Structure formats: structure tokens, C-alpha cells
Fold these 2 entries.
Entry 1:
Amino acid sequence: MKDFLAITDYSKDEILELLNLAIELKKEWKTKGNTPRLKNKVLAMVFQKPSLRTRVSFDMAMRHLGGDALYLSPSEIGLGKRESIADIARVLSGYVDVVMARVFAHEHILKLAKWSTIPVINGLSDYNHPCQAMADALTILETFGRFKDIKVTYVGDGNNVALSLMNICATVGANFVISSPPGYEINEQHISLAREIAQENQGFVKVESNPKIAVKNADVIYTDTWTSMGQEEESIIRSKVFPPYQVNQELVSLAKKTAIVMHCLPAHRGQEITDEVADGSHSMLFPQAHNRLHAQKAILLKLLS
Ligand code: CP
Ligand code: NVA
């Protein structure tokens, strides 16, 4: 596989291999520090939207591995505006070794990959967020030591983060339940595909619109913003629809006592998650964010080796 664009492009064995590599790299970095496995390699980071985690974790991943990273801001290269995506892809392919891009339209990342002769990594599109899902799976595996019989309940908008989380759960054989308000569910076609993948891996994917039922016996409760980047004009209407789907102490108390709470961040405290939960004893928000670094090192190494 030349690129890292979607979880469904990878087999269960390939995802598990990447997760094991991430665990190995994390341990190695914590004990030995930086290792120059990507010496002289350069990553170009193309952003059409803001970022904290994706930008800093990719940059630091390259530095820890002895390489370098270039940040190209939304105003700098004007993906598809100042210049065509096909031209940008061919130009960057002659300068750097790998590209990571965060785009509005998923088709833009596909086009970038099509025209690049170097690997392209999806740093989030309107459709999915596979690097986030890798860090999420890493966090779940580190916490529980397995995926089998782990119930992951996602509460909130059926967005890019939810889609990649569903697909990675289905791929590794964790059980996935999603609870979204009517009209904000993951599209039925994507649910069906994930169900097929889950079945092959002895897991299941379920839809349960009542969040209180959905979190029953959950090992993981996951949520994300009600309004994603690019949907800002819908934020008022969304803020009226989503409150019953807030992850608060009452909802968390309905899951297993050992349940962890996850959020890709940035969090909108008081909306999709309360302070009490985000800073409470079940919260894995910051270890999860830190795992972006380790999961992405594995992706970079795999694509560049
Ligand atoms: N979770 C995540 O992708 O965060 P950023 O938007 O800050 O990169
Ligand atoms: N769903 C959010 C994720 C941010 C990391 C968004 O797309 O804005």
C-alpha cells in the first residue's frame, strides 16, 4: 500500500502489525529516546483546516525519527485554488519523501494520492480520520490488552471520527455501537460495510439511537464535537439537537465501572462532554492524544520503508 487514506484499505493483519509497531516504537522512545530511522526524510504537512494534535504529533514524529517536517498552512499553497491538486502533488513528489494532508473534501486527498509518486497520509477529511482511529485503537489495546469482547460505544455525531473508529473496531474485532440523533447517523451504506467486516472478525456493529441503552456495559465511551470543521453554519441547529447525547457523569455511570472515556479533541466542554467527565477518573483524553505520536510513527515507518 503506497498511501494511508482509510482504515478499510488495510487488512486486520496489517492494522495489527502497525499497532504492534507503534507499541514497540513507544517503548523504544521512552527508554532510549530518539532513533534516526528516518534520517534525511522530509514530510510535507498540507493543511486546509486548523490543527494542534495532527500538526504537532506528525512534526515531532519526524524529528524523533531523525527526519524533518514542513508545515504548509491553508493560505500558503491554496490546494486546488492557487494551483491544481494534480500539479501540487507532482511538484511535492520531487521535493519531499511523504505528504500528510488535512482537507475539506475527501476527493481532494484521493486526488493528491493519485498524482503523487510519494506516499500520502490522510490527516482528516470531511469523510474520515484514519490516523485518529489508529491512536484510538492503540489506546484501547494498551488499556484492555485485547479487542475481543471490548464494547466501544460512540455517542454523538456520525462524523469523520466516528466512521474511522467504527471501521477500525470492525477490522480488529472490537464491538462497536453508535448512538446519534436522527438525521446525524453514519450513512447506512457505511454501516453495512462495517457490519460485514465486523462479522469476518467475530465482532459486531450496532446502531442504538438511545444513548442510555447504547452505553450499557460499554468498556469505552467515545464522543466528538457536535459541529465539525466546515459545518460552522449548522452549529446553532446542532446545539439544539445534540444535548441528549452529551457525555456526562450520569451517562458514564451507566457503562461498566472500568469504562474509559475517549474524545479525539478538541473538546467543547459543556457541550458534547462535561468538565467532570473530561477531567474525571474514567478519562483517557490525554493519553489518547499522546498516542497520536506513536501511531503515526508506525505509519510513517511503514510507508517509508
Ligand atoms: N484530533 C485531532 O485531529 O486534533 P487536531 O484537529 O488538533 O489535529
Ligand atoms: N470531527 C472533528 C474532528 C476534529 C479533530 C472535525 O472534523 O472538525
Note: The first helix runs from residue 12 to 32.
Entry 2:
Amino acid sequence: MKKIIVAIDGPAASGKSSTARRLARSLGYVYIDSGAMYRACALAAIRAQLDIYNTTEILHMLSLTDIRLEQSEAGNKVILNGEDVSEAIRSEEISRLASDISAIPIVRDRMVELQRQMALEGGVVMDGRDIGTVVFPQAEVKFFMIADVCERAKRRFKELQDKGIEADIEIVLSELRTRDENDTNRKVAPLKPAPDSILIDTSHLSLDEQVAILRQHIKQRVERQ
Ligand code: DC
């Protein structure tokens, strides 16, 4: 089967990353979590105590920042300037700052450039907010995953509980709403479905069902080529 690019976009906690990771493994593809790259930028900005709205400071930070995604049996690692920051980028503070920093055009330009380089060979499943619209408008298959915001808050809350992190579901819900608002209404590359994307509502789907549905669509699209 020809190795293609599969783009998966959608709001936070809509099931994108778990599905994309499993889908990539089942296809023998590389999984690229583009959100992790914006998270790594946010962490770099916090550590350098930057004013993210100061263009000179951001440009300087970007020129000194090396972000790599490493595939391993145990899962993907996010490497920032040689350090494994896979855990450090998952805090709520970083979630908020990643959403803010991702609205800055020079940050997006740099991340999009890196994302395109990572997919030069094809055989990639990439998830994010603008993968089907901006990063790979030519992607052979595009999905837009959505789920009811209360369902997404429940999932995120359970993830935090499973990690032993104390959380309040009302706060999780309100933070998700704020991030949806930011990601959807920003001027550059806002979260929106590509016109040729396939809409998948995961509100009532298990992970296995999601992966099976996506695989079926991919099979149909590839066979038609
Ligand atoms: O997918 P995530 O929650 O880890 O992403 C973190 C933030 O990065 C999210 O609030 C929006 C931003 N993002 C983006 O703007 N474009 C992408 N392709 C991926 C993520």
C-alpha cells in the first residue's frame, strides 16, 4: 500500500492523540504529535522567562531551540535541547501557555516548517489543529474529530486521576472551553475542519471503534487512488 499522509485535527481531548498513535502503529506509520511541539515551545519560553508577545525575544528563543520527537517502543519522546521533556510538557500551566504561544505567527511558521520536514517520506499520521488546512492541505486523508465538551472534560479528568493528579472537573471543563475558544478564534491557522475532511464524532465511540473507523476510511481512500 502506498505510504500516505493522514491528517487528524480537532479540539483538545477529542480522542485525536490516542487514536492517531494506535492508528499509526497499526499502519506501520510514524506518529507525529504536533501539539507536543507547541508545548515544548511553551516550556522553553517559561524557562527563559520570556514575554511571549515580544517578537525579538521569541525569535531569539526559536533560534536556540531544538525540538525533536523520538519514536520508541515505550511511546514517543519529546526532546527539547537534548532533554526528555515528555512529562514536563503535560502540565495545565503548559497547556494554557501552549494555546497562547501557538497563536503567534512566527512560532507557527517555525513549527509548520519542522512538521513538513518530518513528513517528507510520507507514511505519517499527524494530529493537531491545522494539519489538514495548513500543514498538509494535500494530505491524502483528513479527519476532523469532535466530541461533546462535557465528554471531553470527563476524559481529561480521568487521565489526570489515572496519573494521580488531583483535579476538579468543573475547572477542567472551563479550561477546555477557554482553549477551544482560543484555538478556534485566533487569526492564524484557527482550528477548523478542512473542506475535504471526514468528520468523526467520538462522543460515544471507544478507542478501538475510532481506530477501526479511521482505518476503514483510509482503506477506501487509498483503494480509490
Ligand atoms: O494537542 P495539544 O492539546 O497538545 O496542543 C497544545 C496547544 O497547541 C493547543 O492548545 C493548540 C496548539 N496547537 C496548534 O495550534 N496547532 C497544532 N497543529 C497543534 C497544537
Note: Residues 12, 34-35, 38-39, 98-99, 102, 128-131, 179, 183 surround 2'-deoxycytidine-5'-monophosphate (CB under 6 Å).
